[in-house]
Each structure stands twice: as C-alpha cells, then as structure tokens.
Write a structure and sequence with these properties.
alpha/beta; Rossmann fold; 8 helices; disordered N terminus
C-alpha cells in the first residue's frame, strides 16, 4: 500500500544522536496526519532507559498527538544502546527481522506507520551490529533525520546522510528537533548548511519546548514547524 498524500506508508524517524528531538518530531508528523483523518500507528522497536510500567516515548506521542494506536516491541531499563541495554539486562535483543514482520502486518490497518528509532542511525540493536538503518532497508522505508541546530550539527548530519546514501536508503528530509526562540549566529548559518547537506530545503524545525505544549497548541506548532512534505507549512526559521 502507499501512504496518503505525499507521505510513504512507512516512515522511519532516526537522528544524529540521542536527545535530538526524535519523539517530538514523530509526534508532530503523527498529529498532522491524524488531523487529516489518516489512520496512524506509531511503533517504537526498542525503548531503553525506562523500567517496565513507566511512561516511555510512546506515551509522549499519545499525549501530544492524540494517537492511541502505538506499539512498543521491546523495553530495557538501562539508558544505553538497545544492544547494550539488552546485554546488561541479561535478555535477548530485539530481532529486527521479526520487528519488520510485525510492522508490515500493521500496514493492513494503517495509512501511515511511523517507526521511531533509538539514538542515532547506526546505534547497535544486537551483537551482530544490526541498526535502525537495516530495519528501514527491510521495510523499504525512507528515513527522516532529526538533528540539532547548533555547533557540531553539520558533521553529525553529514555523516548520517552519508551513511544513508552508502546503504542506498532514501532520505525523507532533515528536521531540526528543537529550534531556539533566540537563535545565534551558528544556528542561523546552519539553516543554509543543513539544507546543502540534505540536498534540499529543510523539512522542518520544531520550536524548542514543543513537547511541553497542550494538544491543540502542539498541533499548531507541528503545522508551523514541519514542511509541506510532512503536512505542515514550514518554509524556514527566523
């Protein structure tokens, strides 16, 4: 099946590292799709850093986007990479091939499936070195890259995009996960340079603090902070 509008049926959301705003961007894409009446499912293959029963990233997505159809496939309590967290917990890691089967099965009941990775694109999920990039390849899904706005972002983003290209994975766009209210010189310059790295205009820049908004205000922030390809009206950040 194909997605509704310009979005694919499955979109993988990864990043240049941890704490870059992947969950907020995932929630923003989900909120806009749901506001158009699309059936949205959000999948978190592995949640780390949270004990059983605690709220994780999917709870944030549900709170911000109002999307109730979510799936977490594995959880490990320590705030480590998925492979390391499973190892420390003495449990088997998530099998990404099995995860791909589950996600493909969900396509029968969804217009859009968002798959939020853990950490950066090449973080290890098992001892063999499988990554969220491998899962994207199994799904035939493009990858939306979430990055930071300040110093260091150009190298991290370029390496991530280069890794996608080396694996012949489609780049769905680059989004800044947390755009400051008062950007400095580096942030303003990076708007141009990140677009050069992406080879296209930025796909968005979510305002800093968006994750603390109520649902209606978050929907408005998502519409302003994401570009037309993701359902919003973003054309650039000031």
């Amino acid at each position: 099946m194909t997605g509704v509008g310009s979005l694919p049926a499955v979109l993988v959301v990864s990043g240049t590292g941890t704490e870059v705003g992947k969950t907020v961007v995932t929630a923003a894409v989900a909120a806009l799709a749901a506001s158009r009446g699309e059936r949205v499912v959000v999948v978190k293959p592995v949640q780390t850093g949270e004990p059983p029963g605690a709220a994780g990233d999917l709870e944030t997505v549900r709170r911000l986007a109002g999307v109730t159809r979510t799936r977490e496939l594995a959880r490990f309590p320590d705030p480590l990479s998925p492979e390391a967290a499973a190892r420390v917990a003495g449990r088997p890691p998530l099998d990404l091939a099995e995860a791909a089967v589950v996600i493909k099965q969900l396509q029968a009941e969804a217009d859009l499936i968002l798959v939020e990775g853990a950490g950066g694109l090449l973080v290890r999920y098992d001892p063999a070195g499988a990554t969220i990039a491998d899962l994207a390849a199994m799904l035939g899904a493009p990858v939306l890259v979430v990055t930071t706005p300040g110093l260091g972002t150009l190298n991290h983003t370029a390496l991530t995009v280069e890794a996608l290209n080396a694996r012949r994975l489609a780049l769905a766009g680059v989004v800044i996960g947390s755009w400051p209210a008062s950007p400095g010189l580096a942030e303003r310059a990076n708007l141009t340079d990140l677009a050069v790295i992406a080879g296209r205009p930025l796909a968005g820049a979510m305002p800093a603090g968006s994750g603390r908004l109520g649902r209606e205000a978050f929907l408005a922030a998502a519409r302003a902070g994401l570009g037309p390809g993701l359902g919003g009206v973003f054309r650039g950040a000031g």
